[in-house]
Each structure stands twice: as structure tokens, then as C-alpha cells.
């Protein structure tokens, strides 16, 4: 049976039997079987490590995915298989590179970057003009604001990007949000001139429009940003970065694989099937508002309506924070 394969924003095809086994004679998830193991480019998984996943009938794709650093989720009824990285974000070190709308993070090497994750389904959309002002004020000092819309429908984000001069990108497939462990917006990540994370995921605002709801002081983030860019303040130590960096758990990544399936199904009008995977994602990562609220528009639910406030009440009742500002200044 032919399955649709979803991975890293790309769509492919893979032949699987009823037990989700793939033939040994064909490439599997981009890997090819050799006498000494399964290989892709210069990387190989030794034959001994794969042996338990192989039978005469083929290779267990779910188990093989785990051996190659992926988490796999399948919908047998819809014949779709989705992959997510098992560990997308390093504990410390380089910020994951990405390319959206023809722009890559590495394009800005040699400059400080403030990655601003936002969405049209969040009130933080009203902060974009203020982030533009920060970009214009600090651009001469070596800062580039790069805003990343976490909208699965690009047309929902584009009206809010008008008149912006800073790089304004759209993460329609959720790849960048996945790589940076974004569980809600607004979230800001600082990247230094060498491409290293200088401040991990931080709830920051550029206005106080919703301060009564989020409790975040926009002036504090502006002051910290100026110190980092203009005054040369190093900011957080390596130890603090390691402490505050939120590295996704396997459950979160499995939730993101379910979300990838849900998005694909919802775009094709298979709302009921999409809802099943959204429910699975909510169980695995109840705190991931970027999935639970962010995918509401795809299933015809108002992200500013009763469903959102019910979600907030659920999280507050369970003691799960909606916003996650860093404890460090």
C-alpha cells in the first residue's frame, strides 16, 4: 500500500504493508540498505543495530525511524506517515539554521538576531509595528529583527506583515517552531553574531497592550535588548542558557508529528481525521498552545473565541503556564 510521507515540510511516498513494514530492496526514509547497514550520504546505521527491525517481510518503519533520530506517527486509515525530529534542539551551542521564503538564518551571520515568533491567531500580531521600530532603532548597531509567523495558512499572516522592512517570514509547516521548541507565541530567541543562542525561548512583548493578561513588561525586554546590542552586554552565561533552554521532550516531538498529520488532513478537508490527531497531540503536550490554538483556524474553530478561553482555563486549572518568560533579566 502506498502511504504519503510527511517530513521537514516535504511530501513523498512510501510503500508499506499492513504492519507498516517497507521492502528491504527500496530506499526507506531516504536510507538505502547495504551489506554493512543502512546508509544515507556519509551516514550509516550498522546492520547489527537494525537487525531487530528487519524480517523477511521487510523493515519496521516505525522502529527504523527511531534508529535514525526520528519519531514516526501513522494514520492507517488515511495512509499517511509523519516524521518529527527526536531531538531538534541542541542543549547548548549553535542555533538551528533554517530557510523560509528564500531567507536563511545563516544569512545574518556577523549580526545579532532577534527571532520573534508570533501569529495572526495571537494578540501579539499588534506588536509587529513596535518590533519594526526596534529593528530600525537598533539595525545600525548590528541587530536584525527576524519575525516568524507561526501561521499554517500564510494568507492569514500576510496582511500583518505589510510595511515591515525587517525580514518577515512565515513558518507554514511549523518546521522552525519545531526546531526551536516554540510552544506559544509571542516567543523571542536571541542569536549572536556567531550563530549561537544568546537567549533561549522567552515570552517577550514589544507593547503593553495585553499586559493585564500576560503580565509581561515590554519595557524590560526593550532595555535588555538595548544592553545586549548597544552596550555589548553579554547577557546570559553559558550555564544560564543551558538552564533556561527548553529542549523538547520525546512526547512533545510525538505531538508535533501528530500535528503534522493534522495539518495535512485538515488542508484536504478531512476534519474528523485531523481532529483525532489534534486530540492525541493535546494528550502528549497539553502545554503546547502553538499546536492546540494555532491549528484551530484549520479546523474551523475561532482562535479568539470560547475554545481559546476554555483552553486557558484548562491550563490554569492544571497549573500549566500559558506564557513562559525567563526568570533571568
Automatic annotation (TrEMBL):
InterPro entries: AhpC/TSA (IPR000866), Thioredoxin-like_sf (IPR036249), Thioredoxin_domain (IPR013766), Thioredoxin_ResA/DsbE_sf (IPR050553). It comes from the Bacteria. CDD domains: TlpA_like_family. Pfam families: AhpC-TSA. GO terms for molecular function: antioxidant activity; oxidoreductase activity. PROSITE patterns: THIOREDOXIN_2. Residues 83-262 form the Thioredoxin domain. This is Thioredoxin domain-containing protein.
Amino acid at each position: 500500500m502506498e502511504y504519503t510521507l510527511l517530513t521537514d515540510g516535504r511530501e513523498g511516498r512510501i510503500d508499506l504493508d499492513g504492519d507498516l513494514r517497507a521492502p528491504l530492496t527500496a530506499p526507506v526514509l531516504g536510507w538505502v540498505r547495504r551489506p554493512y547497514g543502512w546508509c544515507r550520504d556519509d551516514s550509516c546505521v550498522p546492520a547489527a543495530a537494525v537487525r531487530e527491525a528487519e524480517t523477511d517481510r521487510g523493515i519496521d518503519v516505525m522502529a527504523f525511524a527511531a534508529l535514525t533520530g526520528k519519531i514516526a506517527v501513522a494514520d492507517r486509515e488515511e495512509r499517511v506517515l509523519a516524521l518529527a525530529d527526536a531531538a531538534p534542539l541542541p542543549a547548548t551551542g549553535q542555533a538551528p539554521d533554517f530557510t523560509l521564503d528564500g531567507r536563511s538564518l545563516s544569512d545574518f551571520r556577523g549580526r545579532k538576531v532577534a527571532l520573534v515568533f508570533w501569529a495572526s491567531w495571537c494578540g501579539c500580531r499588534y506588536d509587529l509595528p513596535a518590533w519594526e521600530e526596534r529593528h530600525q532603532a537598533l539595525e545600525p548597531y548590528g541587530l536584525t529583527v527576524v519575525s516568524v509567523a507561526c501561521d499554517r495558512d500564510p494568507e492569514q499572516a500576510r496582511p500583518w506583515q505589510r510595511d515591515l522592512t525587517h525580514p518577515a517570514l512565515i513558518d507554514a509547516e511549523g518546521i522552525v517552531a519545531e526546531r526551536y521548541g516554540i510552544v506559544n507565541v509571542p516567543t523571542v530567541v536571541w542569536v549572536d553574531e556567531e550563530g549561537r543562542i544568546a537567549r533561549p525561548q522567552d515570552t517577550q512583548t514589544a507593547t503593553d497592550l495585553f499586559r493585564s493578561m500576560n503580565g509581561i513588561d515590554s519595557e524590560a525586554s526593550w532595555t535588555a535588548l538595548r544592553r545586549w546590542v548597544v552596550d555589548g552586554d553579554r547577557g546570559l552565561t553559558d550555564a544560564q542558557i543551558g538552564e533556561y533552554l527548553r529542549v523538547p521532550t520525546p512526547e512533545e516531538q510525538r505531538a508535533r508529528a501528530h500535528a503534522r498529520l493534522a495539518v495535512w488532513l485538515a488542508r484536504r478537508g478531512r476534519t474528523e481525521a485531523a481532529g483525532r490527531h489534534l486530540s492525541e497531540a493535546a494528550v502528549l503536550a497539553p502545554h503546547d498552545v502553538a499546536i492546540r490554538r494555532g491549528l484551530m483556524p484549520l479546523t474551523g474553530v475561532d482562535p479568539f473565541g470560547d475554545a481559546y478561553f476554555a483552553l486557558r482555563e484548562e491550563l490554569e486549572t492544571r497549573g500549566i503556564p500559558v506564557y513562559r518568560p525567563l526568570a533571568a533579566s
